[in-house]
Amino acid sequence: MLELRGVCRNFGGLAALSDVSFRASSGEVTALIGPNGAGKSTLINCATGIDRPDAGEVLLGGRAITGLPAHRVASLGVARTFQNLRLFPRLSVLDNVLCGLTVAAGHSLIGALLRPPALRNRERRLRLQALAALDRFGLTAMADWPVGVLAYGDRKRVELARAVVSEPQLLLLDEPVAGLNATETAAVGAEIRRLRAQGYTVLLVEHDMELVMGVADRVVVLDGGRCIAQGTPAEVRRNPLVLEAYLGKTSLVA
Questions:
Q1: What is the pLDDT of residues 10-55, one digit of tens each?
Q2: Are 48 and 69 in contact (CB under 8 A)?
Q3: Which ranges in the chain are annotated with CATH 3.40.50.300?
Q4: Are 8 and 18 contacting, i.e. CB atoms less than 8 angstroms apart?
Q5: pTM of the complete model beyond 0.90
Q6: Smallest Cα–Cα separation from 60: which of 23, 27, 104?
């Protein structure tokens, strides 16, 4: 579903990504792990059009998408969450989730002014789709609440609902359980497993190793902008480069 070939990204004299290559297979959860500053979020930004690689290729379903702007990448069926929440605090929970359907809503100045029946029908259909996403994440009772009044864990669920509402081909989750308690983390893990069971392709960036090892089919490890290991969770646990560079032997074998 997603393939990176020799992707490089430099910021001034700092190499954030150096010749990174890996594949995220369709219908699987691929976890991307590494210490802070390893290049994980930069990689997701390059894959989703927010940033542009200096070299290399990004392919979606075999199609080159390198350098496409973010809205074009989204229109191809790619959705994501962010490490730092990017919600609209004054908008309602429902309206924030509806933002995830912008591509499906279409765009026409004349249609927006005249509001023909076809447009009104499409808006009703998208609203029902957004309400279904709220129900999926237990947010229905908060549909009309401003996002800014929600607890942090609830805002995380709003962002997940916004990413999933469009039923994307590829879902990129950037640290979805950061700042959550154990119960909330377990709920997110269960949702990721459900997404995989429903055929979604997920690229998961996460520091919570218990979650990663419990949901991932494959794990890719970055360190210093380079890919130092790839394989199943069991293989990564035993990889000496990973033990040395990132997690520490005690954490991996626990």
A1: 888 788 889 889 999 989 999 998 888 888 888 999 998 888 999 9
A2: no
A3: 1-77+169-254
A4: yes
A5: no
A6: 23
